[in-house]
Design a protein that fits this description.
alpha+beta, elongated
């Protein structure tokens, strides 16, 4: 099963930070750890 992980981090001059993380799975079934992170 292949996973595609994308992570973006940005900071503006005022010091505010933005973190975005996305994981795309070939399988429609999420593992237990992924389900726990959603709650």
């Amino acid at each position: 099963m292949a996973n595609k992980n994308t992570r973006v981090e940005a900071r503006n001059p005022q010091g505010n930070e933005l973190h975005v993380s996305h994981t795309e799975l070939d399988s429609p079934v999420l593992d237990v750890n992924a389900l726990e992170r959603l709650h």
